[in-house]
């Protein structure tokens, strides 16, 4: 399973990816749900970090491309 996560500000990239993978049932294209506003609002109220180091290394910032791809079992859990 592949999950393509697109930066919220990249509408054209989202549409292009959605069209490109429309016929592939093993790929889901979604918007990035993270919000800078959410991060600022909760800055002083951090819960313990439950994510593993391995998971953090799989998902990186967009790197100028406007999207990232998660390719493994984590993708299936995100869209379920």
Summarize the model shown.
The protein has helices at residues 11-20, 36-41, 53-58, 73-79, and strands at residues 2-6, 27-31, 67-71. With 80 residues, it is α+β, with helices and mostly antiparallel strands.
Q: What order do the SSEs take from the amino end to the carboxyl end, as H and E? A: EHEHHEH
Classify the oligomer. Answer: single chain
In angstroms, what is the radius of gyration? 14 Å
Number of extended strands: 3
Which residues sit in consecutive blocks of at least 5 with pLDDT less than 50? none
Distance between the termini: 12 Å
Secondary structure class reads alpha+beta
Biggest sheet record = 3 strands, mixed
Q: What number is the mean pLDDT?
A: 77
Principal-axis shape: globular
Total number of distinct structural domains: 1
> Helical stretch count?
4
Approximate helicity band: 25-40%
Strand order of the largest sheet: 2-1-3
Question: Any descriptors?
Answer:
80 residues; three-stranded mixed sheet; 3 strands
Q: What would your notes on this structure say?
A:
This protein has about 80 residues and is of the alpha+beta class. It has one domain (about 1-40, about 50-80). The protein is built from 4 helices and 3 strands; from the N terminus they run βαβααβα. The chain has helices at about 10-20, 35-40, 55-60, 75-80, and strands spanning about 1-5, 25-30, 65-70. Strands 2-1-3 form a 3-stranded mixed sheet, sandwiched between helices. It is globular, with a radius of gyration of 14 Å. The N and C termini lie close together (about 10 Å). The mean pLDDT is about 75.
